[in-house]
Amino acid sequence: MLVRQARMLTRPIFNSFRSFSSISHKRLAKALENELEYDHKIYKEEDEISSYMRNSGFKLFEREDHTLVTLQKKFNDAEVEITFHVKAPSVDEADEPGESQSNLEQDEPPGIYIDFQVLVKKPNTNTGFIFECLCLDQEITVANVVFSDNLANIKRQSTFGRKGGEYRGPQFVNLHKKVQNLLTEYLKDFGVDDNLAFFIEMYSIDKEHRCYMEWLRHVKNFVN
Prior knowledge:
- This is Mitochondrial glycoprotein.
- Helix content is 46%, strand content 21%.
- The chain is of the alpha+beta class.
- The chain has a single domain, classed as Mitochondrial glycoprotein (Mitochondrial Matrix Protein, Chain A), CATH 3.10.280.10.
- The longest helix is centred in the first third of the chain and has 41 residues, at 2-42.
């Protein structure tokens, strides 16, 4: 008798928990749906993206569910491949209460920066350069210059965040200034310039937005 009464007492608690859980799931699904609708409404591909793709000569390759973006272009004596992963603009940490406007301006975080690789090789070979670069505020900085006869393997191993291993060339800033300038001009001949930096930053934001909307859709469908 006591056991039966205990079971009867615990059953409403379980039902209440299940009801509460169901309500919270619905609220979450609704919030995700609202967020998805809002982001669909505000999303618009910038005209500069399509303009760059029309005029640059690069072909773009990507997967909708992946952050990797590849640009490829063929010249008479070289093939160029540019790869980068999309990255959302950094958001400043919460500001300290009472912080002055002047301090906020001084401590303003840098704009979006993106690491990317530029592969330049002779057609039908596996030999050539890999320039490891980053773009920040529509400007390109070269970090390392790699030369290899095994590009297919070495291009998968970025210098950024890497310790030890195979020699990957000198740091760009350690090269003679004249060599730096000439290598920069060499890259510009293949379309690696400020226009490319602007495109990478714009496209990264655009694709990250699309990836975020896909994430919202999948999560909403899961909890719905």
